[in-house]
Structures are given as C-alpha cells and as structure tokens.
Amino acid sequence: MSADDLDAALAAYRGAVPGASLLVVDRGIPRVRRAYGCADLEGGERATPATNYRLASLTKQFTAAAVALLVEDKRLGFDDRVRDWLPSLPAALAPVTLRQLLTHTAGLIDYEDLIAPDATVALRDADVLALLEREDRTYFAPGTAYRYSNGGYALLALTVERAAGARFAAFLRDRLFEPLGMHGTVAFEAGVSAVPRRAYGYSAAGASWVRTDQNLTSSVLGDGGIYSSIDDLAQWDAALYDERLLRAGSLRELFTPATPTDDPAVRYAMGWRVTGETLWHSGESIGFRNVIVRYPRRRLTVILLTNRNDPEPYRTALAIAARHLG
C-alpha cells in the first residue's frame, strides 16, 4: 500500500482531530510506522509512534500471558478453581476454572450491570470482586457456553496478584514489559503510576470533539487498563514468535481456539480471537478504539490504535493487511 493510499485510508484521523498510530510489521520489519492527528487536542500534542493509548481489551492478551507465566512457574494451573485463589466468591462459582475465565466460558454475571446507578467513584479490580461476591448465580453452567466477560479478566488479575505476591501492575512491569523493552507501557493506576506520552480519549459531539477519557470502569486493570504504543507493541508482537517470554507450549495454549463465540466466524482462545488464519483482538472503551490483527504463518501484523470513539478500526486494519498480503 502506497503512502498516498495509507493517507487516504486514514484521512479521518488527519489534522486537529483525535488521532491514530499505525504499525505494519512484515517478517519482523516495520513496513509502516505512522501517526496521524492529535494525542491531546487541548494541549495541541500530535500523535506519534511512541504515543501511548489506553488499550482497552487488547489488555486481555497480557493478562492471559501473566497467567501463563505463573503456570510455567508452577504457581498456577490453567485448570485451578478460581475459588482456590479468591475464596470469597459465592458457591455458584465453585466449578469455575482459570481456563474458563480466560476463554469467557465461566458464565459470570456482567459486573457492569451491577454498578450502582449513583456510583461516582471509579472501580478497581477488587471492587469487581466485591460486586461478584454478592451474586450467587451464573448465566449458564460454567464451561457449557460462551459469554464475553470483562469481570473474568478482573478476577484473573486478582488471581495473578495472589499467586505472585505482587501487585498486578508491578508483575506486568517486571515480568512482561521491562524484559521485552516495552519501557513506555504501563498498567495505569491513578496516583501510583503515570503514562508517558499519553493519548487522551475523545467522542464526537456533532462537528466537534469532547474529551471522554475515563469512566467508572477505566481503572479496572485486568480487562482493559494497559496503556501502550505501536513502538512497544512491536516488541510484544516479536516475542510471540519465539520463546523469549513464554515457552512454545504456553503460546500454543494461548493461541489454540477453545470455544465458538456469538459470531460464527470467530472462535476464542485465551485473550485472542481466532478468525481463519488470524489471531486478533479489538479494544473499545470510552474514547478509544484499537485493534491488533496477526497473520502468524505469514508473519504479518497490523496494529491500529486510536483515541476516539469512532470509527471502529478493524475493517481498516484488514484492508491494510490485504494490500500487504496481495
């Protein structure tokens, strides 16, 4: 895809508007590394390849990798019962395993539906646990169906903390981000950490944009709280081809489809969706929409991070990938 074609495909992100950062890696070589628009409209900061966006549900692949690292350490097992680690959970969750949380087959009640209508304080992962402690029910018998669950990944983050004896954000920093050279990536905790080169999220309001950077669930780490850049995610993508972080058997666990989903074209593995030859995941939260699409056999990856509520970037990423595969 030519530079002009790319600029046309991403025209909506150009100028004094919320922006985007795009990476295309082909056989280990960054073929495209570009940024468009603004990371901070009020401050006039332009987006760059080093801009850190809230990844939203792209975070789930890192939470899954954290669990896999602890399985390799023999501190966890994929088939451990979650109540072995979080015993305050109700009896209805007694059969639920870490594997079922990772693959969205546990049947957990959506914690977002349990938040009090008058709540004003942002939730953390421990608050998700507190909400689920009061729900002695599931949508279906664990292991019998699929329902996407942000709460399951919050419980996984808490399980990592219990098994590792370290804060989830610190574990990610010490065992994933720093070893891979992802020095700008952070599981952001207000008042504890900072996000360098931070993009702020926006939503369209008529012909203008309004900052919509955080909401009540933005501080939950396990399901969506990581900030990262395309430059750092290039290091992450490279690590998924070899054993610099996880052994081959662990990577197979993460990437092997485990369940059908509510889309007949998509199966779910652990923190990854699987469609045809692609491993991918989207990430949507207030003010951010992101996607990573990997073609492992062809060693092609497209990552598109944006700090706006619209448009969704998945189709754009597929179109860019198609031009490089063609």
Number of domains: 1
Name the CATH architecture: 3-Layer(aba) Sandwich
Beta fraction? 15-25%
SSE ordering: HEEEEEHHHHHHEEEHEHHEEEEEEH
CATH superfamily: DD-peptidase/beta-lactamase superfamily
CATH class: Alpha Beta
Q: What radius of gyration results from the CA coordinates? A: 19 Å
Helix content: 25-40%
CATH topology: Beta-lactamase
Global shape = globular
Distance between the termini: 10 Å
Q: Give the rounded overall mean pLDDT.
A: 97
The unreliable regions are none
User: Could you give a short account of the major beta sheet?
Assistant: 8 strands, antiparallel
List keywords for this structure.
single chain, 326 residues, alpha+beta, eight-stranded antiparallel β-sheet, three-stranded antiparallel β-sheet, 11 helices
Architecture overview:
This protein is of the alpha+beta class and 326 residues long. The mean pLDDT is 97. Helix content is 30%, strand content 20%. The protein has a single domain (3-325), classed as Beta-lactamase. The protein has an 8-stranded antiparallel sheet, sandwiched between helices. Strands 5-9-6 form a 3-stranded antiparallel sheet. The protein has helices spanning 3-9, 59-72, 82-85, 98-102, 125-133, 150-164, 168-177, 221-224, 230-239, 248-255, 314-325, and strands at 20-26, 29-36, 38-40, 45-46, 53-54, 186-187, 202-205, 208-211, 226-228, 259-260, 267-268, 273-275, 278-285, 288-295, 300-306. The protein is built from 11 helices and 15 strands. The termini are close together. The longest helix is centred in the middle third of the chain and has 15 residues, at 150-164. 46% of the residues are buried.
